[in-house]
Amino acid sequence: KNLLKFVTCLIFVIFLMNLFANKFYWYYSVPYLDMLMHFFGGAWIALFFVWLLGGILGESLKFQIMKILPLVLLVGLGWEVFEMLVNDVIAQNPFDFKDTSSDIFADLLGGFCAMLYLHLWRKKQPR
Length: 127
What we know:
Blueprint: H1 2-23, H2 26-29, H3 33-53, H4 61-91, H5 97-124
Helix pairs in contact: 1-3, 3-4, 3-5, 4-5
């Protein structure tokens, strides 16, 4: 129940940050904001799938990561395909492998950190 509240608040914060970043051109003027947003997006995706899949928290960290990180990667790749299509068709910007690979890395790092945090939090909870 608390995880759902946190996941909902996090996506709302990500939405607002993206809204302001686009409105005020922060993606062009604030270095590494794009990577920070991908980090939080990857964390959100991981936490969302943990919530969606339910009882995964009782499993080992290695097993959790093997289940969740491929989902984070899949969503991250899907987002990058969407970005490439928008950039090619609308903005007519060429494909940037360095940007795409760093975005996917940030997605996975965010997902991994979220999983690690949940694992450490779970260990501290009284049984």
